[in-house]
Amino acid sequence: MNSKQKIIDMLMQEVERRYGIAPGNQVERKLVRIFEVMGTTDTVFWGREMLSPDAPESEWLSLVECLTVHETYFNRDKELIAVLAAELLPQMIAQKQQSGDLRLRVWSAGCSSGEETYNLAMLVLMAMETAGSARECADGSIVPLPGWNISVLGSDISVPMIRMAENATYSTVEMGSFRTMDPQLWRFFDQIEEQERNRSDGRSMRVKRCVSEITGFRHHNLLEPLLEEEPFDLVICRNVLIYFNKYKKNVQVHLSASLAPGGTLMLGATDTLLCRDGLEPHHRDGVFWYVKTATGG
User: Fold this and answer.
1) Rounded CA gap, 36 and 27, in Å?
2) Cross-strand bridge partners of residue 284
3) For the chain, which has fewer Cβ within 10 Å, the N-terminal or C-terminal residue?
4) Could you tell me where the beta strands, DSSP code E, fall in 201-295?
5) Which residues in 129-211 belong to E strands, given as ranges?
6) Residues 204, 192: contact at Cβ < 8 Å?
7) Mean pLDDT, residues 94-107 taken together
8) Cα separation values, 148 from 84, 151, 214, Å
9) Residue 38: band (very low, low, confident or very high) from pLDDT cuts 50, 70, 90
């Protein structure tokens, strides 16, 4: 084994140890491509620097940023969105209305650049309007009625992705964020004036305040618990666990622990639930979700 391949193997092992990202063929290919840009001498030097005890965390986060795919857009996973809109969110809102507990908390784990998180916030607002718990404004915005406390959190391990999400601005150029978006969601965007943007990037759309003010973002490693004062009513972690291997169950334990009793966990279509204690399985139209029982751990 040559020195470059040895360093690649060591880096993959360290990435898994730090962040739980499995050292599979996809990760190795991306590392090889990074190394192809660098000369052999630079590669060996950089690799040894990364593997030293003094390597800064920012360098490791930059490497993880290069190794993970940030493929996301509005209205992704249409089957899941349909189940949320038609069944799960109306049920949650009705239960909140009946109990008088008007707090609704949602966590989008592994949110990338924020499209799916904002999409969830839009779905919540539309469901609330339908349930009579929110009102429509003249500009198409939807605002919860007084007394409601709505919070939608997006988290990701990539600091640049979190910054993009917080910017709340997306381009319509080519096959970007709006490639399959439901037309009814355009009510939640404002077009940015020409002087505010680069003329070459097509139209740029900014998420309206009614959505952004109930949405927040945070840097977070899914291998660690999310320290929150209050549990969540809905946790969604889709297209993320494919990067984990032996740590998948650890991540699922943290996700489950963050749920309130009666809260709902939704995973990716190919994700197997490894943390079954206290979670009841449900399904509809090929979409699976898990509800935390009152005695769930």
Assistant:
1) 14
2) 287
3) N
4) 204-207, 215-219, 232-237, 259-267, 279-284, 287-292
5) 134-136, 142-144, 149-156, 169-171, 189-191, 204-207
6) yes
7) 97
8) 20, 10, 11
9) low
> Which amino acid would we find at residue 191?
Q
28-31 contact pairs (CB < 8 A, 24+): 30/66, 30/67, 31/67
- Taking the whole predicted model, whether its pTM rises above 0.90 is answered as no
Buried b (16+ CB within 10 A) or exposed e, 46-65: bbeebeeeeeeeeebbebbe
Range 136-141 contact pairs with CB under 8 angstroms and sequence separation of 24 or more: 137/210, 139/208, 140/187, 140/188, 140/208, 141/187, 141/188, 141/208, 141/209, 141/210
Where are the strands (E) in 174-278, listed by range?
189-191, 204-207, 215-219, 232-237, 259-267
Tokens describing residue 139: 């500009």
**pLDDT by residue (tens digit) across 146-193?**
999 999 999 988 777 888 899 999 888 755 788 888 899 999 999 887
Query: Across-strand partners of 170?
Result: 205
Give how far Cα 132 sits from Cα of 106, 127, 142, Å.
20, 9, 11
Strand partners, 291: 264, 280
In the structure encoding, which two tokens stand for residue 253, read together?
Answer: 């334990």
Largest CA distance in the chain: 67
Tokens at 74, concatenated: 């509005």
Question: DSSP assignment, residue 30?
Answer: H
DSSP H or E stretch at residue 116: helix 115-130
Residue 154 bridge partners (DSSP): 108, 217
Q: Can you read off the two tokens belonging to residue 57?
A: 């965390």
Closest Cα partner for 137 from 215, 213, 212, 209? Answer: 209
Which residues are paired to 152 by β-bridges?
106, 215
69 contacts: CB under 8 Å, gap ≥ 6: none
